[in-house]
Amino acid sequence: MSELIAKLRDIVGPAACLSRPEELLVYEADGLTVHSARPGAVVLPSHRDQVVAIVRACREAGVPFVPRGAGTGLSGGAVALEDGIVIECSRMQRILEVSPEDRLAVVQPGVINAELSKAVKHHGLFYAPDPSSQAACTIGGNVAENSGGPHTLKYGTTTDHVLALELVLPDGECVRLGSPTGVPAGLDLVGAVVGGEGTLGIVTEITVRLTPIPPRVETLLAIFPDVVSACRAVGSVIQSGLVPAALEIVDRRTIEAVEASVYAAGLPTDAGAVLIVELDGAPEAVAGQVERVREHARSAGASGVEVARDEAERVRFWRARKGAFGAMGRLAPDLYVHDAVVPRSKLPEVLATVCEIGDRHRLNLCNVFHAGDGNLHPNICFDRRDADELARVMTAGEEILRACIEAGGVISGEHGIGTEKREFMGLVYSDDDLEAMLRLRAAFDPERVCNPGKVFPSTRFCAESNPKARGYDRVPFE
Ligand SMILES: Cc1cc2nc3c(=O)[nH]c(=O)nc-3n(C[C@H](O)[C@H](O)[C@H](O)COP(=O)(O)OP(=O)(O)OC[C@H]3O[C@@H](n4cnc5c(N)ncnc54)[C@H](O)[C@@H]3O)c2cc1C
Fold first, then answer.
1. Which class is 2-88 in CATH?
2. Residue 467 Cα, ligand 1 centroid: separation in angstroms?
3. How far apart (Å, rounded) are the C-alpha atoms in residues 93 and 293?
4. For the whole model, what pTM was predicted?
5. pLDDT tens digit sequence for 304-328
C-alpha cells in the first residue's frame, strides 16, 4: 500500500492524496452511517488523465478502487471495502460547454447538481433532475445512482437527461459512450452505465440535456388530517390525467421536525400530512390545473389548499421539503433513510404497515416522500451507539422492504443498492437474473476491481430465503 500511495502522490501531488487516519475518517461512510469501512487512501484527481493514471496504478498494485462524488449517497455505494482507494471526483468541477441551441451542457463529474441550473439560468434553461441533496451532490454521483428527485414525476430521472458519457474503464482505457444528439448508434451503453452504481468504470465527463424553464409555475400546499387521505388525493389527481411536476407528501412528524428547524416554512404543525403539488407549463393551462387539483384535494379530505403567493413563498415550501432530512438531524444523532417504490394505488395500505412497523419496534419514524412516483422514504431517527435500538432499526428496515415487495414494489427507487441492500437482491431477482447482471458487469470489469462488494449479494441465496432460487447452497457470488 505504501508503494501505491507514493505513486498516487506522484500522479496528483501530495496535497491531493490523503492517507493519514484522521484524513480518512470522513471517507469511512457516506450518508448511510451504519455501513462503514476505512479506505487505504483517498485521491482527488483534477482531470481525466489523472484518473486514468490512478486506475492503472491501482490495477498494477492489485488494489480495488471506488469512485466518489460528494458522499451524500444513502446506500453505502461510495465506501471503499477491502482497503480500497477512494477516487474522489469533486475537484473535477468544470462546466466545459453550454449549448443553448442544442439544449445541452458538457460537465465534469464533480459539478454540483444545483450549480448547473444556476449557471444556465440566463439562457432560460435548467437541469431537471433535482435530488433533495442537490446543493451538495455531484452529477457524477447522480449518474451512478440514476438519481431522481421531487420533479421526477414529470421530468424523469437522471437517465432521461444524460446524452453521452466519457468513462474510464477499470483497465484504464478511456471510452466515449452515447452521442450529443441523444440517439446512440448500436446498444445503449449509456443506459447501462447510468445507475451502474460506480461498478462499471469512472465517469469523467457527462453530456446532459437542458430543459427550458417553464413559463409559469404554481405550487400548492394541501393540508390533510392524515397521510392516507393525502395519498388518496395523489391517486385521484393522477387518475384524472393531470401530470403535475411534483406530488410530495410530508407527514406530521416530519412537519414538526421541519418547523422546529432552520427550514421552517409555516407548515401547519396540527396537520396529519401536507401534500405539495407543483404545476408548470403554459400559463393558461396551469391556471385551470390549479383549480382541478384544488377540487381533487378537497374531495379527498383536505381541510385547506394554499397556493404560494410569490416566488419567495414557493422557495420556502421547497426549502422545507428538501431540508426535511436535515431537520431530522435535530431529533437523533443518526438517520436511516429508506427508499422503496410501491404501486401508487398501494400507498395507503403500505404506509399504514410502515407506521405499524415503526411503532411496534418503538422507533421514531417519519415519512416524507415522492408520492406521485410511489417512492417511499420512511426515515428512522436513532442512535447507533445504542445496540438494542440499532438492532430494532435494522429489523424494522427489513420488514419495511418485505412489505413493499409484497405490495408489488421494488427495493430501491433512487438511492441504489450499494452495500445496504445487496443481500436483499435475491428477494426480487432470481439467481439467473443476477448472473445476467454480473455478465454485463464483467464486460466492463472482468476482474471486479471497480467498486467491489456492491449491488450483488455476497452469496447465492438458498431456496429457503429465496423462493425463486433453485436450491443452491450458499456459495460466493463475488
Ligand atoms: C439529504 C439528502 C437528500 C437526498 N435526496 C435525494 C433525492 O431526492 N433523490 C435521490 O435520488 N437521491 C437523494 N439522495 C441521495 C444522494 O444524494 C444521491 O444518491 C446522489 O446522486 C449522490 O451523489 P454524490 O455526489 O454524493 O455521490 P456519492 O455518494 O459520492 O456516490 C454515490 C455513488 O456514485 C458513484 N460515483 C460517484 N462519482 C462517480 C463517478 N464519477 N463515476 C462513477 N461512479 C461514481 C459512487 O461509487 C457511489 O456508488 C439524498 C441524500 C441526502 C443526504
1. alpha beta
2. 32
3. 40
4. 0.94
5. 999 999 999 999 999 999 999 999 9
